[in-house]
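Colleagues,

For the teaching module next term, I've prepared a clean inverse folding example: a structure given as C-alpha cells, and then the sequence designed for it. I'd like students to try predicting residues themselves before seeing the answer, so please don't circulate the second half yet.
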C-alpha cells in the first residue's frame, strides 16, 4: 500500500484541519448529499497538481478556499497534503516517506512542497508521472464521469487509454522533440540565410586576395629582374668610370705637352722665318677650315649624344603611358570607397520612393557611372603623344647626315693639307717646315681636344646614369624590399656585360617599369587589411557551414528519435490495448453474465478544409495526399441474450456497468498506486452492486481504492469507513464509522 493519509485544511468545505488515514486496501467515504465527499476527491486532484479550475469546480483560486458561513469566518489559504509510503521507492526519490503538499492563497498564488521543501509544479508532475499518477488522470473518476469513456470521441478515448497504459511519457517526449526540431529548423534557416548573405562578400574578397597573390608573384619576379638589371648596371658604370679615369688624365697631359710643343715651334718660326705671310695664305685657310670642321664634328657628336639621351627618356615615357592604358581594364577601386558608395546609394533610396521604377533605375545608373568616373584614376584612354619622339628621331637623323658630310669634308681638307705639306718638304723650306710643324701640332691638339670633349661627354652621361641608378635602387627598395637591391650575388662577368648592346639593358629597364606600374595600380598598400578581412569572413563562412552541418545532423537525429518514439508508442499501445481487451471482455461477461465486449483500433478520415473554408471531403476523395486520418479506439459490445449491439443501445445501468468493466480493465494493465471512484456505483441494482463489489475486491489487490459511495454493498467491502457530516456551520467533518453507522450516515 502506497497511500498513507490525506490532510485537508481550509480546502472548500473543510474549514478545520482534518485527516484521513488509508490503512486498508479499500476505504469508503460516506455521507449525506452536500456533506463534502466530492470535495475529498477534488482535494486529491488539487494536491496532485491539477491546474484546471473547472475540474475542481471553481472559477478562481479563491473558490478553493473555505468561504465562510453564518458562524465561521472565511479563510485566506487552503492546503492539502498527501503522504505516501515510499519504502519500495515507487516514487523516484530517496525517502521512505514522501509528503506532497499544495497551498493556494486568496490572490491565486500556489505553493508546492515535497517533504516540506518548496518546489516547482514541474517537479511534482515529474515525480508523480514516474509512478503512473497524474493530476487529471484516469485513476480519479469524478462523480458522473464514469461513463465518460463511452461518450468521448475515438481520439480522446485513445488518449485516455494511452494515459492508463503509462504512455503519456512518449507523447511528452515526442512533443518535446518536435518542439526541438522546429527550433533546429528555424535556426537552420537563419544560419543558412546568414551564410547566403556573406557569400557575395566572400567572393569579392577572394578576387582581391587573388590579386594580392598575383602582386606577390609580380614582386618576386620584379626582385629577380632587379637583381640582374642592377648587377649589369653596376658593372657597366664601374667599367665606364674606370675607362674615363684611364683616358681623361693622359689626354689632359697630352694637351699640356702639345701646348708646350706649340710654344716651342712658334719660337723657332719667329727666329727662322723670313718669308712673307702672304705665301702661307692657302695653308692658313685650309688649317682654319680644318679646325672649323673638327669643331663642327665635335659639336655634332655631342648633340647626337644628347638627342640619344632624350630619345631614351621619351621612349620610357611612352612605355609607361602604354602600360597604364593596358591596365585600365583591371583597375582596382578601393573596397572602402565602394562600401561608402553603397551606403550613400541606400540612403538615396528613400528619395526614390515616390518616383517610377524606370526613373529610379536611371538615377541609380547615373550614380554608379559617376562613382566610377570619380574613383578610377585616369579613366579616359588618351591618345599617347608620339610627336616628340618622332621629332627627336628626325633631328638625330639630320645631325647624323651632317656629321657624315663634315667627316667627309674634314678628310678631304686633311688630304689637301697633307699634299701641301709634302710639297714643302720637297722644297726643303725650313721656315715653311716650322710653320707646318705648328699646323701639325694644332691639328693634334684639336684631335686631342675632341677626344677629351667626348670623354667629358661620356663622364657627364655616366654621371647621369649613375644618379639614375641610385634613384632606381631607392625605388626598388621601397617597392620590392631590401632583397631586390642586393644584387652582388648575381653571377655575370664584365666581358659579358660590355659585349651586350646597351639597348638590351634598356629593354630590361622597360620591363621593370611595366611591372612597377602594374603593382602601383593593384594598390598593394591595403593588402594586409584585405587578407585579414578575407581570413575573418572565410572563418565565419566555415563556422556557419559547420553550424549548418551540425544542425542538419541534429535535425536528422531528432527525426529519427521522433520516429522511434512513435514506433514504440504504437507498439506499446497495440500491445497494451490487446491486454486491456482481454481483461475488458472478462470483466464484461462477469458483469453481464455473458456477452462480448472489445476495443477496436480504428482509423477515421479527418475532414480537411481548403483555403476558402469549404468542406472538401467529397471533392477531394480521389486526392490521396489531401486526406488525413486519425487513429482512435472504438468499442464493440454485445449483451447476452439480446440482439441489440452498439453502445447507443445500452440502458443507463448497462452503460455504467460497461464503463466500469472497461475502467477496471484499464487499471489492471499498469495499476496506479491508488484509484478514487466517486459514486461510480450509483446506477447499479442490487445484483450488479454485488458483482461490482467482487470486482473492486479483485482490483484492490493491485491498487488501493478510495470509494465515495451511497451503496451499502460497496461499503461492506471496505476495510475502513469514513463518514462526512456537515453541520449548520457549513463545515465538513470527518469521522471513522462502523458499517451500520455508515449506512445510517449515508442516508
Ligand atoms: P453529493 O452526495 O450530493 O454528491 P457531496 O458530499 O459530494 O454531495 P460536495 O460536492 O463534496 O458534496 O460538497 C459540496 C458542498 O461543499 C456544498 O455544500 C458547498 O457549499 C460546499 N463548498 C464548496 N466550496 C466551498 C467553499 N469554498 N467554502 C465553503 N463551502 C464550500
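(Answer key — instructors only)
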Amino acid at each position: 500500500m502506497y497511500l498513507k493519509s490525506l490532510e485537508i485544511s481550509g480546502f472548500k468545505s473543510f474549514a478545520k484541519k482534518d485527516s484521513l488515514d488509508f490503512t486498508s486496501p479499500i476505504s469508503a467515504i460516506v455521507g449525506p448529499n452536500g456533506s463534502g465527499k466530492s470535495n475529498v476527491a477534488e482535494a486529491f486532484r488539487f494536491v496532485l497538481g491539477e491546474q484546471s479550475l473547472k475540474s475542481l469546480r471553481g472559477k478562481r483560486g479563491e473558490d478553493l478556499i473555505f468561504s465562510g458561513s453564518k458562524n465561521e469566518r472565511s479563510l485566506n489559504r487552503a492546503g492539502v497534503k498527501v503522504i505516501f509510503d515510499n519504502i519500495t521507492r515507487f516514487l523516484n526519490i530517496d525517502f521512505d516517506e514522501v509528503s506532497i503538499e499544495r497551498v493556494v492563497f486568496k490572490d491565486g498564488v500556489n505553493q508546492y512542497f515535497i517533504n516540506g521543501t518548496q518546489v516547482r509544479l514541474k517537479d511534482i508532475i515529474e515525480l508523480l508521472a514516474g509512478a503512473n499518477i497524474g493530476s487529471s488522470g484516469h485513476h480519479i473518476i469524478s462523480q458522473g464521469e464514469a461513463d465518460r469513456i463511452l461518450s468521448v470521441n475515438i481520439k480522446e478515448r485513445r488518449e485516455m487509454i494511452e494515459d492508463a497504459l503509462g504512455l503519456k511519457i512518449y507523447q511528452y517526449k515526442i512533443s518535446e522533440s518536435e518542439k526541438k526540431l522546429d527550433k533546429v529548423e528555424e535556426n537552420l534557416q537563419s544560419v543558412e540565410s546568414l551564410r547566403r548573405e556573406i557569400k557575395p562578400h566572400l567572393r569579392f574578397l577572394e578576387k582581391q586576395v587573388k590579386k594580392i597573390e598575383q602582386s606577390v608573384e609580380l614582386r618576386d619576379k620584379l626582385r629577380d629582374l632587379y637583381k640582374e638589371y642592377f648587377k649589369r648596371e653596376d658593372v657597366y658604370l664601374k667599367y665606364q668610370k674606370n675607362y674615363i679615369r684611364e683616358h681623361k688624365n693622359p689626354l689632359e697631359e697630352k694637351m699640356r705637352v702639345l701646348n708646350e710643343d706649340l710654344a716651342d715651334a712658334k719660337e723657332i718660326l719667329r727666329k727662322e722665318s723670313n718669308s712673307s705671310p702672304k705665301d702661307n695664305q692657302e695653308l692658313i685657310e685650309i688649317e682654319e677650315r680644318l679646325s672649323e670642321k673638327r669643331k663642327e664634328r665635335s659639336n655634332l657628336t655631342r648633340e647626337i649624344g644628347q638627342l640619344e639621351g632624350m630619345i631614351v627618356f621619351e621612349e620610357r615615357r611612352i612605355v609607361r603611358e602604354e602600360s597604364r592604358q593596358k591596365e585600365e581594364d583591371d583597375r582596382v577601386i578601393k573596397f572602402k570607397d565602394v562600401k561608402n558608395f553603397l551606403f550613400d546609394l541606400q540612403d538615396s533610396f528613400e528619395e526614390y520612393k515616390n518616383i517610377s521604377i524606370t526613373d529610379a533605375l536611371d538615377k541609380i545608373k547615373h550614380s554608379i557611372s559617376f562613382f566610377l568616373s570619380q574613383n578610377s584614376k585616369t579613366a579616359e584612354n588618351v591618345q599617347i603623344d608620339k610627336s616628340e619622339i618622332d621629332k627627336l628621331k628626325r633631328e638625330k637623323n639630320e645631325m647624323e647626315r651632317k656629321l657624315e658630310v663634315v667627316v667627309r669634308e674634314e678628310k678631304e681638307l686633311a688630304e689637301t693639307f697633307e699634299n701641301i705639306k709634302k710639297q714643302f718638304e720637297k722644297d726643303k723650306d725650313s721656315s715653311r717646315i716650322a710653320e707646318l710643324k705648328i699646323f701639325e701640332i694644332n691639328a693634334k691638339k684639336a684631335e686631342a681636344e675632341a677626344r677629351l670633349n667626348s670623354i667629358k661627354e661620356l663622364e657627364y652621361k655616366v654621371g647621369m646614369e649613375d644618379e639614375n641608378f641610385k634613384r632606381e635602387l631607392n625605388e626598388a627598395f621601397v617597392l620590392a624590399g631590401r632583397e631586390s637591391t642586393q644584387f652582388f650575388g648575381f653571377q655575370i662577368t664584365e666581358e659579358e656585360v660590355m659585349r651586350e648592346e646597351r639597348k638590351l639593358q634598356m629593354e630590361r629597364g622597360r620591363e621593370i617599369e611595366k611591372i612597377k606600374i602594374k603593382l602601383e595600380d593593384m594598390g598593394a598598400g591595403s593588402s594586409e587589411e584585405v587578407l585579414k578581412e578575407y581570413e575573418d569572413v572565410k572563418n565565419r563562412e566555415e563556422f556557419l557551414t559547420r553550424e549548418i552541418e551540425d544542425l542538419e545532423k541534429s535535425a536528422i537525429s531528432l527525426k529519427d528519435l521522433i520516429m522511434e518514439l512513435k514506433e514504440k508508442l504504437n507498439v506499446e499501445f497495440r500491445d497494451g490495448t490487446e491486454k486491456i481487451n482481454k481483461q475488458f471482455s472478462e470483466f464484461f461477461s462477469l458483469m453481464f453474465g455473458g456477452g462480448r465486449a472489445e476495443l477496436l483500433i480504428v482509423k477515421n478520415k479527418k475532414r480537411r478544409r481548403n483555403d476558402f473554408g469549404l468542406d472538401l471531403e467529397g471533392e477531394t476523395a480521389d486526392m490521396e495526399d489531401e486526406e488525413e486520418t486519425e487513429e482512435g479506439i472504438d468499442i464493440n459490445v454485445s449483451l447476452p441474450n439480446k440482439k441489440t449491439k452498439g453502445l447507443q443501445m445500452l440502458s443507463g445501468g448497462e452503460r455504467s456497468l460497461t464503463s466500469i468493466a472497461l475502467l477496471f480493465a484499464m487499471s489492471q494493465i499498469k495499476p496506479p498506486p491508488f484509484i478514487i471512484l466517486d459514486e461510480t456505483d450509483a446506477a447499479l441494482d442490487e445484483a450488479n452492486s454485488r458483482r461490482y463489489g467482487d470486482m473492486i475486491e479483485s482490483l484492490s489487490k493491485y491498487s488501493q481504492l478510495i470509494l465515495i459511495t451511497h451503496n451499502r454493498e460497496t461499503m461492506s467491502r471496505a476495510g475502513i469507513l469514513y463518514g462526512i457530516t456537515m453541520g449548520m456551520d457549513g463545515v465538513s467533518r470527518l469521522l471513522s464509522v462502523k458499517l451500520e453507522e455508515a449506512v445510517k450516515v449515508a442516508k
